[in-house]
UniProtKB/TrEMBL annotation:
This is 4-hydroxymandelate oxidase. It comes from Actinoplanes regularis. Residues 360-382 are annotated as: Disordered. The active site is at 257 (proton acceptor). Its cofactor is FMN. GO terms for molecular function: FMN binding; oxidoreductase activity, acting on CH-OH group of donors. The keyword S-adenosyl-L-methionine does not apply. Glyoxylate binds at residues 132, 167, 257, 260. The lineage of its organism: Bacteria, Bacillati, Actinomycetota, Actinomycetes, Micromonosporales. SUPFAM superfamilies: FMN-linked oxidoreductases. InterPro entries: Aldolase_TIM, Alpha-hydoxy_acid_DH_FMN, FMN-dep_DH, FMN_HAD, FMN_hydac_DH_AS.
Amino acid sequence: MHRSAEPETAADFESAASALLPPEIWDFVAGGSGAETTLAANRAALDRVFLVPRVLQDVSSCSTRSTLLGRPVELPVAAAPVAYQRLFHPDGERATSRAAASAGIPFTVSTLSSVPIEQVVEAGGSVWFQLYWLRDDAATLDLVRRAEAAGCEAIVLTVDVPWMGRRLRDIRNRFALPAHVRAANIATTATAHERAGAASAVATHTSQEFASRLTWAALARLRAHTDLPVVIKGLLAPEDAERAVDHGVNAIVVSNHGGRQLDAAVAGADALPDIIEAVRGRCEVLLDSGIRSGTDVLRALALGASGVLLGRPLIWGLAVGGERGAIRVLRLLETELHDAMGLAGCENVAAARRLRTSRLPATHSARGGEPLPGPVQAGTSY
């Protein structure tokens, strides 16, 4: 039987990227912290979400268009911040940002980007700047001013990394950055290039640079320091979501850092409904961690999210084909989302957010061979 060589799913890109990248670099992007329990739970939680489709709906003009932070987007998706993308392709963040622009979605450039902010913005499209709070407050706020001057359209403050989680793959590999890859946005005397003892050089560098004393006062200071929309990334507790809204954030990203920080942290899709309830429509809520397909995007919308962040699949596309590979990943996501929305009877994103969901209990698996239970949340609609 003839099989197309062109990847048709994110999983195809994952397989191709794992074969192409050096093992220690593959482990850096693919791995999680600890026993990788939360890494696995992110996928399991999404796989437990089943949709209750509507019928006899006119989906002849089904549209995936939406808005994020008040700006139009072709998909309710933003590219997640991923550090050091020149590890995966020489063009790094330049390629992925151009791909995001081509797909009509925002690109989030990391503090730890291997390409300077200004060069990422020059690639075109809408760019958000992801901020890690550094030990030096003045340097942190200088980064914010630099992002504003470059033309970034939002500040995404990541709050779940007082230090890097124990990523055992990186520790066992004694992972260090190659000479041609560096944190292009920060001036530092620390280095992520030198192996020292039985540790990850990248984790050591992070611990030396990041502020472990980060508190709500920093969010208040950031909110007072910039007129750009402020997004807070890394929340899982509804109490924290309420407090973030009180601090005037424009959006919350429900995230466990892709299973790379606290192992055994709750899966993003499991935390999402409680945060939606706590926020009560006062700001946008996006889901990060585990998104692999357009169907996953629809699941997130049906659970109440405004949209999602897409991380690893975009990197797989970058590794396989540079800008073209990243564009292909995003085009597949668009095709899958359009297909899923139409088959679920959703003519637009607003209709997708009205879909009802049915959840399997965590003790069951959709692939485990057991009979599926009746709807757990069949009466729930967000």
